[in-house]
Design goal:
Number of helices: 7
Strand content: 25-35%
Radius of gyration: 22 Å
Shape: flat
Order of helices and strands: EEEEHHHHEEEEEEHHEHEEE
Distance between the termini: 27 Å
Length: about 280
């Protein structure tokens, strides 16, 4: 394993076409938007997809979805059971980071009754912003019906005409920003190979992610900018690096309908050039 020694910043652009990029459970599962109509994808949603991709690539993951659990554990406490007798918080954190890729990447809070360490917090080196669309998005809603009853009904009960709703973003280009901190990577044991894995997970973010709300091909990685600085602290602040990328509508385009309606460019930062990667 190679030591992670140089700060990394990244910016990811993803397109959404007739899909629910991230439903809001407090708003009827409509795609998330802010008060100005710009689309949002929560950082938790993005990390979930990254964890799934890590798992697809054979990594051990602590925070697994129930439908993807591959180790027989039925809860996080159950999965962490092998660490329950460790009483030293530093030893507990070290073991957790060695076992699970997502813990040494994003961090984790372990707070379980009956454990030798009842509360251990691990700060991960990878921080990810919520995704935000470049322009306000149009959200369409579609009323749907069931073609068959789930249970046997009497003639008075509602049957195949039971109504439901599906919501989706017509089109949106979203920007996702993130960074990798060297000092925290040293504490969790995050390696250069882990950074390469994260880069590949971002490039293939929507592989094996299709669902009724996100049909295959409806969400796509357009471009990934990956800056590797030449020092621990970074040659420039993350904010300045992230601001150096721009996605603007091309001349004559009033309402974007596809990623080609945008011109994506990056300002030149002296001594720091990004690796530019297209999606799958």
């Amino acid at each position: 394993m190679s030591k992670f020694e140089n700060k990394v910043d990244f910016v990811l652009f993803v397109s959404v076409n007739n899909a629910n990029s991230n439903g809001d459970p407090l708003n009827g599962n409509r795609p998330r938007t802010d008060y100005n109509g710009f689309g949002e994808i929560s950082d938790v949603c993005i990390k979930r997809k990254i964890r799934n991709r890590m798992q697809d690539k054979g990594e051990r993951i602590f925070v697994q979805s129930d439908d993807r659990a591959d180790d027989g554990a039925i809860s996080l406490k159950d999965r962490a059971d092998g660490l329950k007798n460790i009483k030293d918080p530093e030893a507990f954190a070290k073991q957790a980071c060695e076992q699970w890729a997502d813990v040494r990447t994003f961090g984790q809070v372990f707070a379980f009754k009956g454990f030798g360490c009842q509360s251990v917090g691990v700060r991960g080196p990878v921080s990810i912003h919520q995704g935000v669309s470049m322009d306000p998005v149009d959200i369409n809603s579609m009323q749907i019906t069931k073609s068959v009853s789930g249970e046997r009904k009497t003639i008075q009960d509602r049957g195949s005409d039971t109504m439901g709703m599906k919501h989706f973003v017509r089109f949106g280009l979203y920007e996702i920003k993130g960074s990798i901190n060297v000092q925290l990577a040293e504490k969790t044991g995050f390696t250069a190979e882990d950074a390469d894995l994260l880069k590949e997970c971002l490039r293939t973010l929507f592989v094996n992610d299709a669902s009724s709300a996100r049909p295959e091909g409806s969400m796509e990685v357009i471009r990934l900018y990956w800056w590797q600085h030449n020092c621990k602290e970074g040659q420039y602040s993350s904010a300045k690096v992230h601001r150096s990328v721009h996605a603007t509508l091309k001349d004559g385009v009033a309402v974007p309908t596809c990623a080609d309606d945008y011109e994506i460019t990056a300002d030149t930062l002296e001594g720091l050039a990004p690796e530019v990667i297209c999606g799958v």
